[in-house]
Write the structure tokens for this entry.
Amino acid sequence: MQVATDIAALRRWRAGAVDPVALVPTMGALHAGHLALVAAARSRCATVVVSVFVNPMQFAPGEDFASYPRDLPGDLDRLRDAGADLVFAPAREVFVPADLATTVSVSGVTEMLEGAHRPGHFAGVATIVTKLLHVTQPAAAFFGEKDYQQLVMIRRMVTDLDLPVEIAAVEIVRDPDGLALSSRNVHLSDGERTHALVLSRALRRVRDVWDGDADAARAALRSALEPAPGIDLDYADVVDERTLVALAGQDHRRARAVVAARVGTIRLIDNVVVELRSTSDARGARSTHGGP
Ligand code: AMP
């Protein structure tokens, strides 16, 4: 496994890399969720590039850029074991120089949910992902469903900018108790971690009882989360899986139940697919997808 810390080194290595190349963008402090992306990339492509870069552009002032977990030596060990071929780990000044004046922003799907709570976040993500795609030129790039709105935005961006890359999605990896893995989880105290479990539990319940009644599902989600101890809810909603627009009334489209909450000082997000599992569940409507 090689490590590149500047763009010239990455481009030199890329010129000799065996196609197809996969890209897995990360902010490091890697866990089993990230490694599932690397495994998916490994199974599909001859060569796997993983970027490790805590992107300052995607943190708003007052967010946790300074305290975001960082562990490059540990990440390199994990990536060597996972079979990555190249790790791109640029310094901040290399990838986001002080005079950077160009940004990429995607409208529509970035305006609600995370976009409404994190000003500038998605333009920061879109700009850095665009740069990573340009310098790496992958055939496929792998993203987790954990950051579902990010995934939807990247797909929109790649379509709109005619970027020649396939965007591959990987399901959320969870701890056995249901908590979605996140680099930020290391900052949770035992008590906070217990409080955080209500998020995945409420999502699971909505998924299990989903009958296409979006208003009832949204109300159930909020009434489970708003009074939950230790949880400060930012949003809980049931949205169309492609447009992210909130569903209303009876709606039999495949959807996502999405939540974001602060637990202590840590902000957590999670989501599940909600879909009708059989024709009887659908009260006559046809489900085009299998059960979860
Ligand atoms: P991050 O380092 O948090 O920016 O995440 C890098 C990539 O890993 C993103 O595409 C995330 O969606 C994905 N990811 C993070 N946590 C998980 C998880 N628990 N399961 C699956 N993918 C994840």
About this structure: Strands lie at 2-4, 21-26, 47-52, 86-88, 140-144, 166-170, 232-240, 255-263, 266-274. The pocket of adenosine monophosphate is lined by residues 26-27, 33-34, 36-37, 143-144, 146-147, 170, 172-173, 180-183 (CB under 6 Å). Residues 190-209 form the longest helix (20 residues). Confidence is low (pLDDT under 50) at residues 280-292.
